[in-house]
TrEMBL record, chain A:
Pfam families xrefs: GMC_oxred_C (PF05199), GMC_oxred_N (PF00732)
Cofactor: FAD
Region span, Disordered: 1-29
InterPro entries: FAD/NAD-bd_sf, GMC_OxRdtase_N, GMC_OxRtase_C, P2Ox-like
Domain of life: Archaea
Protein name per Swiss-Prot or TrEMBL: Choline dehydrogenase
Sorted UniProt keywords: FAD, Flavoprotein, Oxidoreductase
Glucose-methanol-choline oxidoreductase N-terminal domain sequence ranges: 110-332
Biased composition (Low complexity): 15-29
From TrEMBL, chain B:
Entries under InterPro entries matching the protein: Gluconate_2DH_su3
Pfam family name, one: Gluconate_2-dh3
Lineage top rank: taxon: Archaea
Region (Disordered) location: 27-52, 170-189
Protein name (record): Gluconate 2-dehydrogenase subunit 3
Source organism: Halorubrum xinjiangense
Length: 552, 189
C-alpha cells in the first residue's frame, strides 16, 4: 500500500480482511480487564499476563505497522492535519471546550493500540523529588501520597522497559542508582553553538533521556533519522506501547480493538463487575473480571467514570470525593527562536539532545518549576516548504535555500497548578457516535504558570542574544499552548475525601479498580509525564498481582 | 547534481512504497502488459481513457523536467525508478494515473501535443494554466488540487525527501529520509 491517502479506511479494514471474522467477544473467566492499550495499560497487561488471564479493551483500532510510511507521508504533506496521521477525529472523538482556553484535544491524543505513544516525542525524564511534595516544599499545589523514593526503583525499571538512551551528566536530575539502558544521543551541531553562549552566561547544558534507541535494543532498530518522530516513527526506534501490547499477547493476553468501553458496572459490595463495551457490528458486550485497571488517559478516564454513574454513585463511579474530572492540567510551552548569520543544521532529526534543568528547583510559591530545551528542529523543513508554495523549478530552490539553514530555537515546559475549576465533565447535549455524552473540557491556567513562562522567555532570549541570533518569535504567556500531557483528573490522595485513588492508584470507592494514568498526578511538575506514567503502571501491576494473590 | 537510483529508493522509503527491493520487478511485468484493469500498457497512448504505466512514466518525467531545478540531472531514471515503487495498484497509484490523464488531456486540447512533446516553457505554462501552481494539494479536490497532489507534489516530495534533493538546499538528511543519526551532529561543510 502506498500513498498518504491509502490509510483512510483503516478503521474498517481490520474487519474486512478475514471476512469480518475478528473475534471481539468477552474473555470468559478473566482475572484482569484493562481499559486502554496505551503505555499504562500495555505495561500493566504485560506485567500480569504471565500468571493471569488478562483482557485489554481499546476504543481505537489496531494500526497496521505496514502503514507507517504512509502515515509519515501524511505528516509531511500539507493536505493532512496532525489528527489525520493516526485517524483521530470525527464523531467518535467529538468533544467540547468551555474554559478560558481552548484545548485542542484531538491534536493531543491517538486512539488505538499503542495510544498516544504512537505520536509522542519520546522524552522520558523523572520528576524531581520536590515535585512529589509541592505543598510542603514550595507552598503551593498538593503533596503526593508517594515520594520519589517510592517510585525510584520503578523509574529504573520503566527505563529498561521502554528503552531509554541517556547519560548521568545532569547535575540537577534526581538521584539514580544505575546508568540508563542505552548511551545517550550525541549532542547536535547546534547544541555546540548554544554551549558557547550558555557558558558565557553561566547556564548549564546537559543531555536528555530519550525513549528512542541509540543502538539496537531488544529487537528494535536504532534511530535511522527519519526526522518525523512526532507524529510517527517508521523505524520503531522510538518506543511506543505496541511493544508491550505484543509482549502481553505473546504471554497470553487478549487485546480487543475498536471496543470502546461505555460503562463500568459494580455490585452492592463496591466491587466492579464488568466493563460494557461496544463493537463495530453495533453489539454491546460485558467483560467481567476479578480486577479492573482503567488506563484511558487524562480525559477519557474521568469521562468513563462519569458515564458510569449509578444509584450508589450518582455523581459518577469512584466519585465519592466529587473530584473525578477536576484538576485538569497540562504543561505550558514557553519558547523563543530566530536566525543566525551562519548554518545551524536543523531538521536532520526530530528530537532534541540537550536541555537545561538548572532553574527547575528554584520553584516556590511564586515561580513554577520549568525546564529548557535546545531544539534540533528549529525553522522550516525544506520538503514541507517545497509542497506548500506556488513555485517550482529554480525559483523553488531559491526559496528553500533562503528559508532553510540558519534557524535556532529553544523550548521549555512549565508546571501549572492544580485547580478544581480546570476540569473535564460531560457535555450536556452533545453525544459521540454511539450516543454517549462527549467530554467537556474547561481548561484554565494560573498566574504563577504565566509568570514563569515569562521568566523562561527571559532566559531563552538572553541565550539567543548571546548566541548572536536575531530573535524573531517568542511564545510567551499570550501565545503559550499545551504540551499534550493530560494530567490530574482522578487525583491521588490518602484522604478519600480529597482524591479519587489512594497511594497504590486503587480507587477509594471500589475495592478492585485501579487507575493507571497521568490522571492520578496530584501535581504535574514540568517534566514530560510518560516515564512517571510507566513507573506508576508497573507499580499498579505489582499491586494488582498482590491483591489477586491475596484475594484468591 | 546527479539524481541516482539510491535517491529514488530513498524517496520511496520515505513515502510509503515497497521501496528498493521491488525496483525493476514490477516494470518488467508492466512491459508484458499489466496496465490498469488488465489493459495493455502502451507508451504510445492516444490520450483516450487512462494511461498505462509507461505513459504515466513518460508524462511524469516530462513534468519533472519542468518542476525540478535545472541543477539536477538524471531525472528520467530517477522518476522511472521512483514510479516503479509508486505504481503498485494502490488507490494512490490510480490517483496518479487519473491526474496524469487530466494533464495529458489539457496538453492535447490546448497545445495539440502530449506533455512530453512540449518545450519546457510550455510544460510550465500548462501546469500554471491548470492552476497547479496556486492550488493547495488535495487528493479529493478540484482538478488543480488533484494535479498538485498527485503530479506536482508527488514529484517534489520525491525529490526533496531524497539525499540529493536535500543537498540542493543544504540538508543531506531531509525529513522523510532515513539518513542515519549522525548528520545532525556534523557542522557545515
Amino acid at each position: 500500500m502506498s500513498g498518504a491517502e491509502s490509510v483512510d479506511g483503516e478503521r474498517s479494514a481490520a474487519d474486512v480482511d478475514a471476512g469480518g471474522a475478528v473475534d471481539r467477544s468477552p474473555v470468559p473467566d478473566a482475572d484482569v480487564c484493562v481499559v486502554g492499550a496505551g503505555p499504562a495499560g500495555a505495561l500493566v497487561a504485560d506485567r500480569l499476563a504471565s500468571d493471569r488471564d488478562v483482557v485489554v479493551l481499546d476504543a481505537g483500532p489496531r494500526f497496521d505497522p505496514n502503514n507507517r510510511l504512509a502515515r509519515q507521508e501524511r505528516a509531511i504533506r500539507p493536505s493532512y492535519d496532525r489528527p489525520d496521521v493516526w485517524g483521530v477525529g470525527g464523531a467518535r472523538d467529538a468533544h467540547e471546550n468551555a474554559g478560558d482556553r481552548s484545548y485542542p484535544l484531538n491534536h493531543a491524543r491517538v486512539k488505538g493500540v499503542g495510544g498516544s505513544t504512537l505520536h509522542w516525542q519520546g522524552m522520558v525524564m523523572r520528576l524531581h523529588e520536590d515535585d512529589f511534595d509541592s505543598a510542603s516544599e514550595r507552598g503551593v499545589g498538593a503533596d503526593w501520597p508517594v515520594d520519589y523514593a517510592d517510585l525510584r526503583p520503578y523509574y529504573a525499571e520503566a527505563e529498561r522497559e521502554l528503552g531509554v538512551a541517556g547519560a548521568s551528566d545532569n547535575p540537577y536530575a534526581p538521584p539514580r542508582e544505575e546508568p540508563h539502558p542505552m548511551p545517550p544521543f550525541e549532542p547536535s551541531y547546534s547544541d555546540s553553538l548554544f554551549a558557547e553562549a550558555c557558558e558565557s552566561l553561566g547556564i548549564d547544558m546537559h543531555s536528555v533521556p530519550n525513549a528512542r534507541n541509540s543502538e539496537p535494543y531488544e529487537g528494535r532498530s536504532p534511530c535511522v533519522g527519519y526526522g518525523t518522530c512526532q507524529p510517527v516513527c517508521p523505524s520503531g526506534a522510538k518506543y511506543d506501547a505496541t511493544v508491550h501490547v505484543e509482549r502481553a499477547e505473546e504471554k497470553g493476553a487478549t487485546v480487543i480493538d475498536r471496543a470502546p468501553v461505555e460503562r463500568l458496572e459494580h455490585d452492592g459490595d463496591d466491587r466492579m463487575t464488568a466493563a460494557v463495551y461496544a463493537t463495530p457490528d453495533g453489539e454491546r458486550h460485558r467483560q467481567e473480571a476479578e480486577a479492573f485497571v482503567v488506563a484511558a488517559g487524562g480525559v477519557e478516564t474521568p469521562r468513563l467514570l462519569l458515564l458510569s454513574a449509578s444509584d450508589r454513585y450518582p455523581d459518577g463511579l469512584a466519585n465519592g470525593s466529587g473530584h473525578v474530572g477536576e484538576f485538569f492540567m497540562d504543561h505550558l510551552f514557553a519558547g523563543a527562536g530566530g536566525t543566525l548569520d551562519e548554518e545551524t543544521r536543523q531538521n536532520h532529526v526530530g528530537f532534541y539532545t540537550s536541555a537545561c534543568d538548572q532553574f527547575y528547583d528554584e520553584a516556590d510559591e511564586e515561580q513554577a518549576p520549568f525546564k529548557l530545551e535546545f531544539f534540533n528542529y528549529a525553522g522550516p523543513s525544506p520538503v514541507e516548504m517545497a509542497l506548500a508554495g506556488d513555485d517550482w523549478g529554480d525559483a523553488l530552490v531559491d526559496r528553500l535555500r533562503d528559508g532553510y539553514g540558519n534557524h535556532v530555537a529553544m523550548g521549555g515546559l512549565v508546571e501549572q497548578l492544580p485547580d478544581a475549576d480546570s476540569r473535564v465533565t460531560l457535555a450536556d447535549d452533545r453525544t459521540d457516535d454511539r450516543g454517549n455524552p462527549v467530554p467537556r473540557i474547561e481548561w484554565s491556567v494560573d498566574d504563577r504558570a504565566l509568570d514563569t513562562i515569562e521568566r523562561a522567555n527571559e532566559i531563552q532570549v538572553a541565550i539567543l542574544e548571546e548566541l548572536g541570533a536575531d530573535v524573531e518569535w517568542i511564545a510567551g504567556p499570550d501565545a503559550t499552548g499545551p504540551a499534550y500531557h493530560h494530567m490530574g483528573t482522578t487525583r491521588m490522595s490518602d484522604d478519600p475525601g480529597a482524591g479519587v485513588v489512594d497511594a497504590d492508584c486503587r480507587t477509594h470507592d471500589l475495592t478492585n479498580c485501579w487507575i493507571a494514568s497521568s490522571s492520578v498526578f496530584p501535581t504535574s511538575g514540568a517534566m514530560n509525564p510518560t516515564l512517571t506514567i510507566a513507573a506508576l503502571a508497573l507499580r499498579v501491576g505489582d499491586d494488582v498481582a498482590d491483591w489477586l494473590g491475596d484475594d484468591s | 547534481m546527479e539524481l541516482t537510483r539510491r535517491d529514488a529508493a530513498a524517496a520511496l522509503a520515505a513515502i510509503g512504497a515497497t521501496g528498493g527491493v521491488a525496483l525493476g520487478v514490477r516494470r518488467t511485468a508492466d512491459r508484458r502488459g499489466g496496465g490498469p484493469g488488465g489493459e495493455q500498457a502502451d507508451p504510445a497512448w492516444d490520450g483516450e481513457g487512462l494511461p498505462g504505466d509507461e505513459a504515466v512514466r513518460t508524462a511524469m518525467t516530462a513534468v519533472a523536467e519542468a518542476v525540478y531545478p535545472g541543477a539536477v540531472s538524471g531525472v528520467d531514471a530517477f522518476v522511472g525508478a521512483f514510479l516503479d515503487g509508486r505504481l503498485d495498484g494502490s488507490p494512490h497509484c490510480e490517483g496518479i494515473r487519473a491526474a496524469v490523464a487530466e494533464v495529458e488531456s489539457a496538453a492535447r486540447s490546448w497545445y495539440d501535443a502530449p506533455v512530453a512533446d512540449l518545450p519546457p516553457a510550455d510544460r510550465d505554462e500548462l501546469l500554471r494554466e491548470l492552476g497547479a501552481d496556486t492550488a493547495e494539494e488535495d487528493p479529493d479536490g478540484t482538478t488543480a488540487e488533484r494535479v498538485r497532489y498527485y503530479v506536482v507534489n508527488e514529484l517534489l516530495l520525491a525529490l526533496y525527501s531524497s539525499p540529493t534533493g536535500g543537498e540542493l538546499v543544504g540538508i543531506e538528511n531531509p525529513q522523510g529520509h532515513a539518513g542515519g543519526a549522525e548528520s545532525y551532529q556534523r557542522g557545515p561543510r
